[in-house]
């Protein structure tokens, strides 16, 4: 790969995928693999993981082999790649579902150097005849998707994944890219060790999915609540997860008799029926799939608008992976879980008879899930902490606990006592033992270690077990404590924890939910509908109908024709030529020529019939990008997403975002950024600046900065308050 080729990655991105800019760390990942270096990618679902191997595969000589455990997903990935190019042979899959003639065609295209991406199931890769065949083709690199399957600590352990490094080396020396959407520090360590990638460059993106809303509800009248949610969101795609196949069938049937287009999906169904159900979901013939938690679905649908867990999953990693199927197009994604402790007891029963080590792993993973479900802390903060990431705010404004805060109590003395107790028992025990010592519970283990003779024993007897669990979880979140990776669950103090003991300070902890005592209507929070702005809803509906017709004629899911964000951009830009269509977000020349003509004709007729004035200089890229950005900003602010998250998602600086906000409000659009100012600025300061703009004849930023210079207000704060002022009093 030449240096010139490396410098033109943005052009390749636009040519193949229709995007002008890379997302997050994509560009760095692609540069690394093009330099033939092993690469480890940890990127959340919806973060653009696939492009990390798809684009270099298209650029490189030879064929990239993508190892994936999800046979159901391979066809979708291949269809998507074929949608970007003109030759069907550009992408193939190789797994047990192929007939002999189909397999022969795949091999013919590989030998003929037509195929740039080959998706392979790990079972197919281990067959000796395939190993021998792969030695005869030019392989650009191997990409191991869902790499967490290597680890027994991962949520989807597959023993055959542990053989991959040996098999790849037997085929030939080529670079390896490992990719996963969920990896705790323990799982990351396992992956690197097993794939001999100890010194490999790791690209770890933030696990924060700012567009996802998280909520945990008590499991009372859950079916009724699910039906109501779906009825209130007509036409939106969703997934419902259950613990058992029986429950999957029951919930699916309940939805159907209530007039909801839903189907069950689990491992007990015949392969052909599972494939048809998945296709019906992708082709939008049904709105909802009900599936078992245990069965990996491999649904690659970007516009799933809600994921509901009827039963709580057995690990937070699994929960994160499953909820990650919502809002992959950066649009709305509601993640609602129904919880009762009985479900946890069921999961514990499933572990009986398994090896002791496996039971211990399972129990610790369940403990994390219980902590998440019962906690009153910010859901996002807790999820990110689980993956070794610190969320800097206490309020994310997009989960039930942040939007509907619980009562908080001062816990400085409690945290101090908990840390002291952990030191007293030599940092060699788990949460349960620590709590038993604190509340004075004389268990066999407490007696055998003589911990009932410690000064700290019974020191926290004024509070119950749930209280101390909440205190210790908060200490973990604050970074005062850590859990050992090798000896999972053992608590020890960090440097911050020792500092706290030396110099304690105020720690506020939110009281946990009383789940078992909530009645049918208790604890419910009604969410207002998330509304966007700026798109022509009538045209959007017409384009969706036309997209579905095109998809059915081509035999592909609608999102492969054009994604929802692309259709939204079309309702703002009104492209009526092929050149203009190529400037739409997510539309490259290949996709425009393959699917664009009927949409262009529809839009042209719509513009003429409704006498619409289209944006000037449509083909100027910067204008299109700004318009796309404007819609994204308006919709994101409607959903009360943090401004820094919006800037990060769009790859712009905070200053650039504020400039765009100023343009939007100056053009007459009302934006309510009060939620951001309230959590990021002293209210008295904000009111002072508002009063200044009310009394001043002009609204000069420079003059305002000069006025407040001695107060230490930043330019960013003044500009944001000015945006609020113009929006409230001018629009």
Main sheet properties: 7 strands, parallel
Shape: globular
Mean pLDDT: 82
Q: Distance N terminus to C terminus?
A: 53 Å
Can you tell me the CATH class of the largest domain?
Alpha Beta
Total number of domains? 5
Structural class comes to alpha/beta
Helix content: 40-55%
CATH architecture of the largest domain: 3-Layer(aba) Sandwich
Strand percentage lies at 5-15%
What does this structure look like?
The chain is α/β, with parallel strands linked by helices and 731 residues long. The protein folds into 5 domains: 3-204, P-loop containing nucleotide triphosphate hydrolases (Rossmann fold); 212-403, P-loop containing nucleotide triphosphate hydrolases (Rossmann fold, 3-Layer(aba) Sandwich), CATH 3.40.50; 408-511, Winged helix-like DNA-binding domain superfamily/Winged helix DNA-binding domain (Arc Repressor Mutant, subunit A), CATH 1.10.10.10; 537-619, HRDC domain (DNA polymerase, domain 1), CATH 1.10.150; 623-730, Orthogonal Bundle (Arc Repressor Mutant, subunit A), CATH 1.10.10.1390. The chain is 49% helix and 11% strand. It is built from 35 helices and 17 strands. The strands form 4 sheets. It has a 7-stranded parallel beta sheet with strand order 3-4-2-5-6-1-7, sandwiched between helices. A 6-stranded parallel beta sheet has the order 8-13-12-9-11-10, sandwiched between helices. Strand 15 (481-483) and strand 16 (491-493) form a beta hairpin. Helix 24 packs across helix 26 (564-573). The longest helix is centred in the C-terminal third of the chain and has 21 residues, at 589-609. The radius of gyration is 27 Å and the shape is globular.
